[in-house]
Amino acid sequence: MSFIVVRIKWIMLVSGILTTSMIYAAIAPEAALNSTFGETLRGPVADIVVRNWGALITLIGAMLIWGAFDPPSRRLALVIAGASKSIFIGLVLAYGQQYLARPLRISIIVDALMVAVFLAYLLAVRRSPIPA
């Protein structure tokens, strides 16, 4: 666990950059859905929902990047990002298993690894004072 604690800044930075790549969904919602799920949704409501989804995921990534450089905000950033990724994983496993043969499978695996690393860090520092 000390490996993770010592390198958390870089772990958060890489995780944040990967997560912010979902800006793609905010810019090109149909293309993002097609490349991720192999399907698209059409219409103005779909554009709003998918663009919002992409923007929210991008904000989670930005929060991870912020936390990488701002130690007092790391715990909050990791909890929020971990919760968001866990919810996504749970929803896909509960309702979207048919999409696991698509590139979405890679996203699920990467997100699960991120959640595990975030949790390991949070457990390792749970009794440590928050750095200034």
Walk me through what this model shows.
- This protein has 132 residues and is mainly alpha-helical.
- The chain has one domain.
- Helices cover 77% and strands 0% of the residues.
- The protein has six helices and no strands.
- Helix 1 runs antiparallel to helix 4, helix 4 runs antiparallel to helix 5 and helix 5 runs antiparallel to helix 6.
- The chain starts with a helix and ends in an 8-residue tail after the last helix.
- The relative contact order is 0.16.
Can you give the helix content as a percent range?
over 70%
Count of separate structural domains? 1
Quick one: biggest sheet?
Answer: none
Query: Count the helices. How many?
Result: 6
Number of strands: 0
One letter per element, helices H and strands E, the order comes to HHHHHH
Identify low-pLDDT runs: none
Termini separation (Å)?
Answer: 22 Å
Rounded average pLDDT: 93
